Amino acid sequence: xxxxxxxxxxxxxxxxxxxxxxxxxxxxxxxxxxxxxxxxxxxxxxxxxxxxxxxxxxxxxxxxxxxxxxxxxxxxxxxxxxxxxxxxxxxxxxxxxxxxxxxxxxxxxxxxxxxxxxxxxxxxxxxxxxxxxxxxxxxxxxxxxxxxxxx
Length: 151
Known about the structure:
The protein is of the alpha+beta class. The chain has one domain: Nuclear Transport Factor 2, Chain: A (Roll), CATH 3.10.450.50. It is built from 5 helices and 6 strands, in the order H-H-H-E-E-H-H-E-E-E-E. It has a 4-stranded antiparallel beta sheet with strand order 3-4-5-6. A two-stranded antiparallel sheet has the order 1-2. Strand 4 and strand 5 form a beta hairpin. The longest helix is centred in the first third of the chain and has 14 residues, at 2-15. It is globular, with a radius of gyration of 23 Å. Mean pLDDT is 83; it is low at 3-24.
């Protein structure tokens, strides 16, 4: 009888408890932005292309837009050497987020909207960056845009 009880408990333990597969939490748009900025800092344009795209997928996967390598190089030129800090998330849905990011480049500090989109596979990608807010790379910052103490 005792052996039967032990056998029953072993079988119960083997069958019960449901799945042990772990479900990873959604890292969200902030994590995707962090990875993108890290790729900019590392001058890893291939990684940037993996983290930039539309809800259809990354530019590296889809090959779209056809001039994506040029666009990635331009984004890199605007953001390299910058420090970034997420200030707010004024818009968020299950498939789209807008992050207001403080970008400090040389002696300029600007608030730049970054739009991120979620693919059908659940990956967040940087979709759009308002680069015009930053001004041209290599040009001096207007006096009213300088960090406090730089005047």
